[in-house]
Amino acid sequence: MIPAAFDYVAPTSLAEAVSALSEAGEDAKILAGGQSLIPVLRLRLAFPSTLVDLGRVDELRGVREDGDSLVIGAMTRHSEVMDDPLVRQYAGLLAEATATVADPAVRHRGTFGGALAHADPAGDLAAVALALDAELVAEGPGGRRTIAARDFFVNYLETALSPDEILAAVRVPKLEGFWGVRYEKFHRVAQAWAIVGVAAAVRMDGDTPGGSIAEARIGLTNMGATPVRASSVEGALVGAADRAAVQEASSSVAEGTSPPSDLGGQADYRQHLARVLTARAVTAAAGLGG
Amino acid sequence: MRVRMKVDGVVYEDEVEPRTLLTHHLRDGLGRVGTPIGCDTSNCGSCTLLVDGESVKSCSVLAVQADGTEITTIQGLAEGSTWHPVQKAFQEHHGLQCGYCTPGMILAAVDLLSHNPDPTEDEVRHGLEGNLCRCTGYQNIVKSVLSAASEMRGDGPLPGSFQDAPAESHETAGASS
């Protein structure tokens, strides 16, 4: 299948990209890695007038340290994120979840920023961004602004970005001290979307493994129209020191969620999965498996 | 738009519509039909090729995005009449049945081995997870890749499926334990 015709511009700086997007008007779309957008165009589910390709904007790629945070360029490819030494050191949860996205060929093209801006609640990385309290840096004609991940995902495939804004970078606060992490993804076959995924980061009391949980962060994939931060369970997990306590605390994780019912599973099945996977993810992250 | 790319060692410069997919440009524009199109939805991986040495699904890349790149398809993998070790291993280990997925499988395997020269069987399976074989010939595909890895590391190929297989022993059949 062949996409409908569109105009194409490939700016080489972020400033050029912002003005190209404004000039192209409201029917323009940004092309990042294209691993979601190009299939959508091929199926003729979208008819953008212009594609503004960010693939040649080098300043949007790469990972750097900035004080207590990592700054990950929006166009950094999944294959670069998962192998980046800074990401592995300070945001291991992101490295682990990124390694489960699609397959190696898709990870060579797909980008961190593109995945977040696409805002598919079945995508793995939005739940991670929520759990890590990431901040999203958007650039538009009016300048630059920072949006907290909890305010970024507005609805199904809808974000807080305005049509003339470009996601430029993602600031991920470093996890320092003893944090255990785990991304539990449940899917039918290799490379399939998550039926449910749970992103967990857990800090242990006294910063040593084997104690009790001092702080927990839980993000849920595909449990609603947007990725979900499971705050109530985070509170309930504090103090848990064994597997039974983690399971008990995890049992309320699906309360208040409205997951979809589709070929991957019914809503109640997803809620069951969320409880099981949360307990698994937290147990593994906390090193309480024994 | 004008695009220039080096495909299997030959530089091509052509006018393409922005909506032209890389796979269509190669097949229809350049007549390089060694890269098949399978599912048309970026699931199956049969159109996998290497762009600047990295595997991509060419049904999900626009030709204009590949402007200025160097592309390797299955047609450019052999050195003259000498097959690439992965190609050779697929023949020796019967890593193909109908052959439709084979170009993509081989290029995905070449990409995997460039990052991980000594993969475990599990790592081979994960490395090829974006490539589907509808003949379900995965066992021999995995054997082929492991053998190619061994050969490329200088350890020589693993025994082939047929010619080098040891004669089956019946001595233990029915033996009591």
Explain this structure.
The complex is a heterodimer of chains A (290) and B (177). With 290 residues, chain A is α+β, with helices and mostly antiparallel strands. Chain A folds into three domains: 7-53, Uridine Diphospho-n-acetylenolpyruvylglucosamine Reductase, domain 2 (2-Layer Sandwich), CATH 3.30.43.10; 62-172, Uridine Diphospho-n-acetylenolpyruvylglucosamine Reductase, domain 3, CATH 3.30.465.10; 179-286, CO dehydrogenase flavoprotein, C-terminal domain (Enolase-like, domain 1, 2-Layer Sandwich), CATH 3.30.390. Helix content of chain A is 33%, strand content 25%. Chain A is built from twelve helices and 14 strands. Chain A has helices spanning 14-24, 37-42, 78-83, 85-90, 92-98, 104-109, 112-118, 124-131, 149-152, 231-237, 243-250, 267-286; strands at 7-9, 29-31, 50-53, 63-66, 69-73, 135-140, 143-148, 153-155, 158-159, 166-173, 179-186, 196-204, 213-221, 228-229. Chain A has a five-stranded antiparallel beta sheet with strand order 4-5-10-6-7. Chain A has a four-stranded antiparallel beta sheet with strand order 11-12-13-14. The longest helix of chain A is centred in the C-terminal third of the chain and has 20 residues, at 267-286. Chain A is globular. Chain A starts with 6 loop residues before the first strand and ends with a helix. The model of chain A has no long low-confidence stretch (mean pLDDT 96). Chain B has 177 residues and is α+β, with helices and mostly antiparallel strands. Chain B has two domains: 2-76, Beta-grasp domain (Ubiquitin-like (UB roll)); 85-152, DNA polymerase, domain 1 (Orthogonal Bundle). Chain B has a five-stranded mixed beta sheet, covered by helices on one side. In chain B, helix 2 packs across helix 5. Chain B starts with a strand and ends in a 25-residue tail after the last helix. The interface between A and B is medium-sized, with 30 and 33 residues.
